Amino acid sequence: MSEDAHLEQLRSLVSLFSANTAQYKGAQYDEANTRTDFIDKFFALLGWDVANDLRFSESYRDVVREDKVKVDGSHKAPDYSFRIGGVRKFFVEAKKPSVNIRDAAEPAYQVRRYAYSAKLPLSILTNFEGLAVYDTRIKPGKDDKASAARLLFCTFDEYEQRFDFLANTFSKDAILKGSFDKYVEENKNKKGTSEVDAELLALVEDWRVELAKNIAKNNPGLSIYNLNTAVQRIIDRIIFLRIAEDKGIEEENLLLSVAKSANIYEKLILIFVKANAKYNAGLFACMDWIDNVRIDDRVLSNIIVNLYYPECPYEFSVLPVEILGSIYERFLGKTIRFRKVRADVQTAIIEEKPEVKKAGGVFYTPQYIVDYIVQNTVGEKTKNKTPEEVAKIKVCDPACGSGSFLVGTYQYLLTYHLDYYTQAKNLKAALKNGKIYEPAFRSYKLTIEEKQRILTSSIFGVDIDSQAVEVTKLSLYLKLLENEGKEAEGWLFKYSDNRLLPSLEENIKCGNSLIGTDFYAQGNLELTDDERIKVNCFDWEKEFAEIFKAGGFDVVIGNPPYVRMQMIHKNQTEYFKQRYKSAIYGNYDLYILFIESSLAFLSKDGLYGMILPHKFFQAEYGEGIRKIIAEGKNIVQINNFTTNQVFENATTYTCLLFLSKNTNDTFNYQEVKMGSCIQDALISPIFDTVLSSRLSAKWNFYGSAQEAIFEKINRNTVTLERVSRKIFKGSSTGNDEVYLVQLVSHHKKHSIVYSKALNENIKIETVLLKPFIYGQDVRKFYIANTHMYVIFPYEIINGKAILINVKTLKSDYPLGFAYFEQVRKILVKRKLEFNSGDFYKYSAGRSLSEYDQKKILIPDMLVESRIGIDLSGEYYHGPAIHSFVINEQYGFLDYNYILALLSSKLFWFFISHTSTALRGNAFRLTPEYINPFPIKVIDINKKAAVQIHDNLVSFVNKMLELKQKEATEPNQQVKTMIARQIEGVNKAIDTAVYGLYGLTEDEIKVVEER
Questions:
Q1: Tens digit of pLDDT for each residue in 388-426?
Q2: Please, which pLDDT band fits residue 68 given cuts at 50, 70 and 90?
């Protein structure tokens, strides 16, 4: 339909409303008529198939019109949910024309609560007489005016004037073209905007603290493990019942009525007992010791009252399960601990778990990643299968956490079944057999019984954390009841005697996925209760006997823990060495073992899909698992996100790894370029096809053009590792405030320096000071001026650095001795120790020949090639710099020649394709990554080769000269001219290096585009 036709229809609607406004604003004209006569037609003009005339499947219809449930006299779901591909984009809340939506606070608060809880950025309130657009990222408050967070208000007679804006923002076409998202982006960061998950997490954590403190105070004999369990179980039960209330499955104000009385916990136990009979699931199962804890009324009352309108800004009927999962994932990253207040009194506190703190926090997997992994594993296994065939597919997450991947799988299977049953050829039989029902005209839902069957037949998970297991069950139960309401009970007993919730005791289990009961075969292991909980042995073949009897799991998915071995008890690491082929290095990460173990319990044609760090592609500790995968030709697909960040506020760089139990001669590889949007890249991925046989000791996934370059530059070369006399890491002082000082003035015998440890200038023997540089001081071809010096209390004996003993220090270097004594006294006064062992020693102890000679300097982390040279051999450096001298065997190669190669674009091309990428487009330049760089060794008997060598040496000499001039030139105009000359010499070096390695013009283009 043309734009003119749309406007004509809009004018007709407006004219009709204008002519009969008094009638429409009368008491007899209700909301249902308003929707049918005006609002449906208005949004149809914006391109939405409001009535589903195109007969899309239930999961993908444009608009969901809710059959509302009334609680507290108000509706519990929005009138319209507008969707693209089944994903909500915005809500529309409808009112009848007699409701004053411009000024009345209640309707605005209502739509804002819906959309804020559903994590939607914008939503609309309309009675057709007027239309309001709200920024629903702003947390709604019970005292807010109708105008709060309102971006636009217009009346019906302004619709034509505003139609371009409305069509360009809220039409289906505008959303598909990104105009809606652009408008959202342009209007973000307004005052008061916040994420519902962050707000709700803070609320839940407050409850946890108050409950934990109160239960600990009133129940002094309770163990810390049982305290954690009790707090978790009580919160889970309250949240579940509150959500069930909002859905109409429980009676309204069920919890609120109890919260306003005395002996609240005793009355809650009675509610839990009834819920156990109704839902028939472990969530409400009687546990005498939990039922008998004592909790003060004020604590429970505060929790419950703040879950209800008007105190509560959340609308639980529309709160996505995935948001609760996000909250709980972070919730699980903390634990309750006891802290003594007095000798005989303790309280409860909440702390981050040590392994979480070490990892920098808990990072919840974004939903789009979960969906992508599920689609490429579960989606592949269910393709073209009947529900009977799908029922045989078993999906497992071996480290399920809050259950996000299992919830994603369950949602996928629910959608798959609903779409299957609502196909024209299957519809009649599905209705007859109780697979689906029709709550509204031409609208279908799966029966509760069918949802239960799908859940229990296909979804399995394990986690070492008992609280995570309970959260996963809760998340799955809430997903089962999602989009259900009062009518669910009417259909519940139609075909069976099932209760609302199935037991998940055989599906979701607590245990250590990596440790079997053979752990105890190691010998006499005396474990404390805490250690026993951390070990938590799990026998896969016993716990899932029927599945393993049939061959194993068909799909294994998830996000395994990223925990370094240093965080694991020694008795476990010894066990891992014996059990896992991939545990060949001591500094590996637990996710390596999860890859190996998951492959082991996949069925014959099984699929594996995980998000995990890509560091193992090249890191030494990944050698074992790389070998296992390469030999098995298990890779199906890799999506490498390089330095793009999936997890917000994290520094973990990840990939998606898809494996199969079958062998694959080729696999798909996608590299998401730096700075790209991962979500967009996954929507339309561009893959290279890689031969499995090409996997080498370290995994580098080049395209054919890059591969040809690597093959060429590796011909007739030797590695940097052979040319250098071992690349070494700089020294660590152990206490920089003591040993690193800033020069104030330099004298032959003594110098004045500023000591941070003393916060004053001191005098010290000059011979004890060595110039010290940091990584940022190493510039391309030169070293920036440094004012930092390291106090180096060592003597040179046979070229070795030998620690000066205290007696000699006192007699020969009295100023240095006095300084150390002064610092030591301060540390003693602060009750601090300086390292263990000799106070005066720091961890240098290396041959002075490594420092005191010409050397090439390489910072260990760079965003561009920035290699320097220490011509005088005077600079000492810390561990953030690696340096080397040329091996005597290759002494005929000039340092400037090696520096030219390492400063070239070809070197950076090599690093960017072989090193580990870090945040901010940086790469690691540690020995394992720079050692393999191929060096062209000049044949000194060939004049042409010697000429190339000498030309590069000359270029670098010129560059060193120019860099020095540029640094000291005061005239900015002259400085600019020098900079241009430097640029020209840089190009000359690159050109000469390309020629040295024989690169063609096309290959040079690939190198420079990287």
A1: 999 999 999 999 988 999 999 999 999 999 999 999 999
A2: very low
Residue 75 pLDDT > 80: no
The residue segments making up the domain with residue 992 are 713-719+886-1010
Residue 861 lies in a domain: no
Q: Which of 290, 319, 352 is the last residue of a domain?
A: 352
* Position 94 pLDDT exceeds 90: yes
Looking at the structure of the chain, the number of domains it has is 5
Residue pair 511/536 in contact (Cβ under 8 Å)? The answer is yes
Write down the pLDDT at residue 69. 40
**Rounded to whole angstroms, how far apart are CA atoms 883 and 851?**
9
pLDDT digit string (tens) for 340-369?
Answer: 767 677 788 777 766 655 555 556 788 899
Q: Looking at the structure, tell me whether residues 472 and 581 fall in a common domain.
A: yes
Tell me: do 606 and 511 sit in the same domain. yes
With vertex at residue 195, the alpha carbon angle to CA 194 and CA 200, rounded to the nearest 5 degrees, is 110
Domain boundary residue, one of 167, 186, 205? 186
Classify residue 792 by its DSSP letter: -
Distance CA 93, CA 111 (A): 6
Compute, in degrees rounded to 10, the torsion defined by CA atoms 376, 378, 379, 383.
130
Task: Give the separation between CA 552 and CA 560, rounded to whole angstroms.
Answer: 19
262 and 273 assigned to the same domain: yes
Cα gap 662→665, rounded to integer Å: 10
Query: What is the token pair recorded at 273?
Result: 């007992």
Residue 370: closest CA among 415, 422, 409, 400: 409
Contact 93, 115 (CB under 8 A): no
d(CA 322, CA 475): 8
> Residue 822 and residue 820: Cα distance in Å, rounded?
5
Whether residue 780 lies inside any domain: the answer is yes
- Bridge partners (DSSP) listed for residue 249: none
Other CB atoms closer than 10 Å to residue 184's CB: what's the count? Answer: 17
pTM reported for the whole predicted model: 0.73
**Res. 997 pLDDT band, cuts 50 70 90:** very high
The C-alpha torsion from 316 through 318 and 320 to 321, rounded to 10°, is: 50
Q: Has residue 792 been placed in a domain?
A: yes
Instruction: Decide if 717 contacts 935 (C-beta within 8 A).
Output: yes
Distance CA 178, CA 194 (A): 22
- Give residue 194's pLDDT: 59
Residues 607 and 740 in one domain: no
* CATH code for position 138: 3.90.1570
Location of structure tokens 């099932």: 498
CA distances from 153 to 101, 128, 182, 948 (A): 10, 12, 20, 73
- pLDDT for position 643: 76
The residue type found at 779 is R
Residue 292 lies in a domain: yes
* Nearest-5° Cα angle at 423, 418 to 426: 95
